[in-house]
Design a protein that fits this description.
globular; eight-stranded mixed beta sheet; 8 strands; Rossmann fold; alpha/beta; 223 residues; 18% strand
Length: 223
């Protein structure tokens, strides 16, 4: 395990943020012994259908409400303030410039990690920070070399003592299993559209905000 401290980065559309997102951030913060985790809503996610997204300022505000008073978690407007598509490598380079030589950890879900080979300059991510692949049961219990995108594999060697892969840059790629909460943003949006309850799937403040701003309701115009 690396020394304690530093920041984690957990990005996503957060459309809307839900308890599964928050629990993942908290478990990464705790297990990686980070000072804080920055949750970064994407303004223009390159791999998402923009027509299904609530406006970026609403998604950021829901995130701020969700983690208000939660020590060690912070919402970041970095990608919202940056024009153009929200590429992870650009975000990580910005955080690296901010923290200097301090530890930087990029947390990415298993499904997203399997598509990493389609991301902009994805090989550079491994040379910028530690990467933690987050997975819930019944997902994989370990990472294999074959799970790493082909063009990046030669830069890694396996460290059996930590059950992780070390990159030529010195940064580490590891897998972290987290609590299985079967909650999805898509299912939440569908429930809102059908006028069904989302209580206990999202924080109460987020539930109230979605209702007040008329988000995710067909025919309603968000405020």
């Amino acid at each position: 395990m690396s020394a304690a401290g530093g920041i984690g980065v957990l990005g996503g559309s957060f459309n809307p943020v839900h308890l599964g997102h928050l629990r993942a951030a908290e478990e990464v913060r705790e297990s990686q012994r980070l000072d804080e985790v920055r949750l970064v809503p994407a303004a223009v996610p390159p791999h998402k259908d923009p027509t299904a997204l609530a406006p970026a300022h609403h998604r950021l505000r829901m995130l701020e409400l969700a983690i208000a008073g939660s020590a060690g978690l912070r919402a970041s407007r970095l990608e919202i303030d940056r024009p153009g598509p929200s590429y992870s490598i650009d975000t990580l380079r910005a955080f690296r410039a901010e923290v200097g030589s301090a530890r930087l950890v990029f947390a990415v879900g298993w499904d997203a990690f399997r598509e990493l080979g389609t991301w902009k300059h994805y090989a550079d991510i491994f040379a910028t920070c530690d990467v933690v692949v987050v997975t819930r049961p019944p997902g994989p219990t370990s990472l294999a070399l074959d799970d790493i995108p082909v063009a990046a594999r030669k830069a890694f060697c396996y460290d059996p003592s930590s059950e992780s892969f070390r990159h030529a840059s010195g940064y580490v790629l590891s897998l972290q299993r987290i609590t299985a909460l079967d909650i999805s943003a898509a299912a939440i949006r569908a429930r809102v559209a059908a006028r069904r309850s989302i209580r206990f799937l999202v924080p109460p403040a987020v539930e109230a905000y979605i209702d007040a701003q008329r988000l995710y309701r067909p025919g309603d115009v968000p405020r």
